[in-house]
Amino acid sequence: MMKTILKSAKETVVISPEEPTRLIGERINPTGKKRLAAALNDGDLSIVKQEAEEQVAAGADILDVNVGAAGVDEVDMLPKAVQLVMETVDVPVCIDSADPVALEAALKVHRELAPEGKPLINSVNGEEERLEAVLPLVAEYGAAVIGLAMDDDGIPPDSEKRFAVVRKIVERAEGLDIPREDIVIDCLALTVGADSQAAVVTLGAMRLVQEELGLNMTLGASNVSFGLPEREVINWAFLAMAIQNGLNCPIVDPAKVRQAVLAADLLLGRDDYAMRYIKAYKQRG
Amino acid sequence: MMKTILKSAKETVVISPEEPTRLIGERINPTGKKRLAAALNDGDLSIVKQEAEEQVAAGADILDVNVGAAGVDEVDMLPKAVQLVMETVDVPVCIDSADPVALEAALKVHRELAPEGKPLINSVNGEEERLEAVLPLVAEYGAAVIGLAMDDDGIPPDSEKRFAVVRKIVERAEGLDIPREDIVIDCLALTVGADSQAAVVTLGAMRLVQEELGLNMTLGASNVSFGLPEREVINWAFLAMAIQNGLNCPIVDPAKVRQAVLAADLLLGRDDYAMRYIKAYKQRG
Predict the structure, then answer these.
(1) Residue of chain B nearest A262, judged by CA positions
(2) C-alpha to C-alpha distance for B156 and A274, rounded to whole angstroms
(3) Do B260 and A236 touch (CB under 8 A)?
(4) What's the rounded Cα separation, in Å, for the pair A153 and A209?
């Protein structure tokens, strides 16, 4: 079984089909969050610290760190935010930026604070420019990387073409001696409100990745319900289906989905005697 | 695509992978319901009438009718209950009994009230005695039938053996010229609290039925969470996974699961513009 191993200075997290689903906390990201975006513009990282603590308390196994917002100098702020998260909580981090220079600055800080560490980079995709900029960083810093199933032609509209992009990313990574267990695939969730086939395509691509390559997979699952009422009901059902198709480290708000993810793990035989499910239930009171 | 067509006197329901998931209302069944069992013992069918109305209002597409309880004469009561349900609501019925004599008495009443009708019979399984008693009734009355994946050796502990029982039921039915679209398979949900592999085995068997035979499938889904806290969270996740694996007419309490089933249909591309999902949300207020 494919094992992606992430490490902070203090904790190791194994992502694998044999392990329980790992939650990547999504909340340190100013997209759609005006208060966080404004704070980052002021150089204020207090919300980042708070979100780090709260998400770990809610069950996050890994924390995504993204400071990309209009007016924010990511090359300056991303390393600072990564450092603060690493000093605040013990879990591994997922360094998230569209700017390769900011990624490298944050990777340097990560290496200083955790010389034996292994972060996740979010993300590479099948675009030539992106492959050329990000994969060398993955190799040089011994990181793992999220590979998005899109390329220079955009997000493919069918499962087979998304899978073809995944293959291309894996081949290019292996060309730089990045082992495939260090690649975590994101087949991309689009909203079913706009396209009734959106989730079918994503789930189909995941099934191909699961069956043909056996790679570990992430997904920004909540996009699927954008614009619809009672989003949690849709998100929970989508997570259950996607976990069945190989999703094992979704990027989510752990407080909102942990219960449903624990139920999915229980059903898939990853929670003997329902111990994790029952423990989480009791902790919530 | 396989189409199972059920008919009452007034309504036709098509069960097919291309259609939205159909809900078989489970509540007209005295198992575990002391008040209903006592009423049936007194010959009182008022609860049956009430449950029929409430389940259809909650979204049931088909109603299971079971009067099996200690002290109840099913041969007398099952036809009466079926008649009352047929006179109360328009949806097709699923005639549910372990007693072939009671089944036939109810089938006769069904034929009188709906000469062109087609009920579902619950159930046959791979036991010799059961095959010999029930399949001739299915053929004679032109009914459809639920086939349970168990036989004289009990419920097989792995997916492949459950699938082997399914194949046997299909072969035996076809030997009586019962077309396979009139067979609805139940791969049997056992509780994950007792066996961490219980749902894995069920889901694996369903995948085999889906891929190898393409038969329509039912499931008494809520068994899976027996004895565990927050059963709905587990049941919803299980329904999402099972619907992805071909479940298209679960036996459920519609008031408890309809929302989750509509979400699953939406994700699987069976609800254009999310119209059914949004309509149900608005109706609930």
Answers:
(1) B234
(2) 22
(3) yes
(4) 20
Question: What angle in degrees, to the nearest 10, is found between the helix axes of A275-284 and A254-267?
Answer: 150
Cβ–Cβ under 8 Å, residues B182 and B138: yes
Instruction: Answer for the pair B155, B149: CB distance below 8 angstroms, yes or no.
Output: yes
pLDDT digits (tens, 9 = 90+) for B62-80: 999 999 999 999 999 999 9
| H-run or E-run covering A184 | strand A183-186
- Cα–Cα distance, A6 to A23 (Å, whole number): 13
Q: Which of A53, A45, A112 is nearest to A76 (CA)?
A: A45
For residue A104, which phi and psi values (nearest 5 degrees)? -65, -40
0.95 exceeded by the pTM?
yes
Give CA–CA dist B187/B190, Å, rounded: 10
Q: How far apart are CA A152 and CA B3, in angstroms?
A: 42
pLDDT band at B41 (very low <50, low <70, confident <90, very high): very high
Residue B278: closest C-alpha in chain A:
A229
Structure tokens at A9: 């200075």
ipTM of the complex: 0.95
The closest alpha carbon to B97, from B113, B114, B115, B82, belongs to B82
Please judge whether B259 and A233 are an interchain contact, meaning their C-beta atoms are less than 8 angstroms apart.
yes
For residue B35, give how far its alpha carbon lies from the nearest alpha carbon of chain A (Å): 31
Nearest to B240 among A241, A274, A278 (CB): A241
Instruction: Determine whether the interchain pair B236/A240 forms a contact, defined as Cβ–Cβ distance below 8 Å.
Output: yes
pLDDT at A205: 98
Q: What is the pLDDT of residue B38?
A: 97
A-interface mutation test, from B159, B196, B223, most A Cβ less than 10 A away: B196
